[in-house]
Amino acid sequence: MHRRLVVPSALAASLLLAIPASAADYVPGASGIGDPYYPASGNGGYDVSHYDLRLKYQPATDLLEGTATILATTTQNLSRFNLDLGLKVSEVRVNGRKARFATSGQQELEITPATPLEKNRTISVVVRYAGKPSEVKIGGWTAWQRTPDGGVAAQEPESAAWWFPSNDHPLDKATFDVSVSVPDGTQAISNGVLQSQSSRLGWTRFNWRSNKPQATYLATLAVGRFDITTDRTANGIPVLNAYSKDLGDNAGAARASIERTTEIAEWLEEVYGPYPFNALGGYVPNVTSGFALETQTRPFYSPRQFANGANASIVVHELAHQWYGDSVSVDRWKDIWVNEGFARYSQWLWSEKEGEGTAQELADYVYASRGADDPFWTVKPGDPGPDDQFHVAVYDRGALALQALRNEIGDEDFFAILKGWPTEFAYGNAKVQDFVTYAERVSGKPLAALFDTWLYEPVKPAASTVAAGVSARSWAAPASGAERPVRPKSWKKIAETNTIHEHEDH
Q1: Alpha-carbon dihedral 462, 464, 470, 475, rounded to 10 degrees
Q2: Which one of 110, 322, 325, 424 has the lowest number of neighbouring Cβ atoms within 10 Å?
Q3: What is the pTM for the complete model shown?
Q4: In whole angstroms, what is the distance from residue 493 CA to residue 488 CA?
Q5: CA 348 to each of CA 121, 248, 307, 470: distance values in angstroms, whole numbers, following the listed order
Q6: Cβ-contact 450, 322 below 8 angstroms
Q7: Distance, CA of 217 to CA of 290 (rounded, Å)
Q8: Strand, coil or helix: what is 359?
Q9: 3 state DSSP class of 455
Q10: CA separation for the pair 267, 270 (Å, rounded)
Q11: Buried b vs exposed e over 227-250: b needs ≥16 C-beta within 10 Å?
Q12: Taking the mean position of all CA atoms in its chain, how far away is CA 15?
């Protein structure tokens, strides 16, 4: 018989491991994820992996009833944690047990589980809730638009709190199952693939699945009466477009634009690499707003975007976001250039492809059209501030930065960067500096000064300081009486999309 000898130090260590953490070791998760632009957005202490939303919506009354099951992993010892939701909650369960809950502020749902949650634990949270989304105001605005036949959730930088509880910030992405019951004759449109639908007792349930990580503001829901078209890309990705039956005179132009989704997506694959998601499409509800949004797999378009006729350029912009903005999302909202500068530059590349003006010609025109005293140049696309997050300078000056980069490093490295970046950071988040570092690695050139000039300096860059390879003649402001660069043919359609992120209610 052998006795095991336990030395005192080892015994003490084993006893320490056996002692459970005291209550003092468990603390509440932060009520914000740490974004300086939106301190209340998101929450700390956990990371969500999946949202399962089971909803019922009555268009006649705007009543939304929901049960959300959230799967997450704790990132600290938690005594309490928050979700973001503006609707009224009736019950919360954590790991199957009833939890105490309270509300604070305009969107904080504070949840105290029956027992504290240790770090790195997988948890399930079930929230039962109901309310009328159109009556919910957070910060004085709403992300929910009622329509004559239903309602729509689509906004940026936040929209989830009006229809489901979440960790509402792009830094915490998750997969989604969205199941929505609506009255027969009405449809529910969401992200991803329509897995199934069934009818019972006057109600039809639509089951949608988005199987790649998705930011909460990119989740969307539209209830109404729609005409549906379907297709498949050459690679077999299902395409579903939905058009409200009540688009009036904009119906034809909307269809003429969005039915080019497959064509445009296949062209974008040549520029940015394989399409990153399991579905494709777009939808146009009968809303009165004028913006569009890159809701994942299925962008939202307002009918007013087509008031002047068909415009494929807006489809290019929103589909480009599927790579730049959706698959690779901002780390903090100050990094918005990694979304919008590239979506605008995609419009310039489309113009080049269509023979309606090269990206260089568009850059020349933008530069020459803005005098040195134009406030446009005071906006810093690399960190514009929350009030200027969607300023046209983030788009146009942001695209100028990319043209300057292209001229500095040449087409071979430039297009390698455009295609490599979405793969390098696929389904994750990135900062502006991450892109600068990546571009320097691929090109082998120091680029910090170039990006500082175009993204951070609050003045119009002088022609003499523009990156090498760009002629001072083409980028210099024209002398008095001199002829300005000719306006490219595509400019009008591109400029019509300047309102796409002017969110009237925000």
Answers
A1: 40
A2: 424
A3: 0.93
A4: 10
A5: 47, 30, 22, 17
A6: no
A7: 18
A8: helix
A9: helix
A10: 5
A11: eeeeeebeeebbbbbbbbeebeeb
A12: 48
Residue 186, token pair as written in the block: 């009405």
Q: Which long-range contacts (CB under 8 A, 24 or more apart) does 370-379 make?
A: 370/460, 371/460, 371/477, 372/459, 372/460, 372/477, 374/460, 377/458, 377/459, 377/460, 378/458, 378/459, 379/458
The residue behind tokens 């025109």 is 365
Distance CA(310)–CA(50), nearest Å, equals 37
What residue type is 270 in one-letter code?
Answer: E
Kindly state the tokens that stand for 66.
């929901």
What is the rounded distance in angstroms from the CA atom of residue 375 to the CA atom of residue 458?
9
How confident is the prediction along the chain (506 residues), in pLDDT tens digits per residue? 433 333 444 444 444 444 456 666 999 999 999 999 999 999 999 999 999 999 999 999 999 999 999 999 999 999 999 999 999 999 999 999 999 999 999 999 999 999 999 999 999 999 999 999 999 999 999 999 999 999 999 999 999 999 999 999 999 999 999 999 999 999 999 999 999 999 999 999 999 999 999 999 999 999 999 999 999 999 999 999 999 999 999 999 999 999 999 999 999 999 999 999 999 999 999 999 999 999 999 999 999 999 999 999 999 999 999 999 999 999 999 999 999 999 999 999 999 999 999 999 999 999 999 999 999 999 999 999 999 999 999 999 999 999 999 999 999 999 999 999 999 999 999 999 999 999 999 999 999 999 999 999 999 998 744 443 344 444 444 444 456 789 999 999 999 988 766 555 44
Instruction: Output the CA torsion sign for 130, 131, 134, 139.
Output: negative
Rounded to 5 degrees, what are φ and ψ at 478?
A: -65, 140
The dihedral sign for the CA sequence 161, 167, 171, 175? negative
**What is d(CA 429, CA 332) in angstroms, rounded to the nearest whole number?**
9
Tokens 């969205």 belong to 178
CA pseudo-torsion sign 371, 372, 374, 377: positive
Tokens found for residue 230: 């379907």
Burial of 96 per CB tally in 10 Å (0-12, 13-18, 19+): exposed
Count of H-run helices and E-run strands, the chain: 12, 23
ω into 157 cis (within 30 of 0): yes
Structure tokens, 273: 């690499």
Q: Tokens at residue 44, please?
A: 């700390």
Residue 402 buriedness (CB in 10 A; 0-12 / 13-18 / 19+): buried
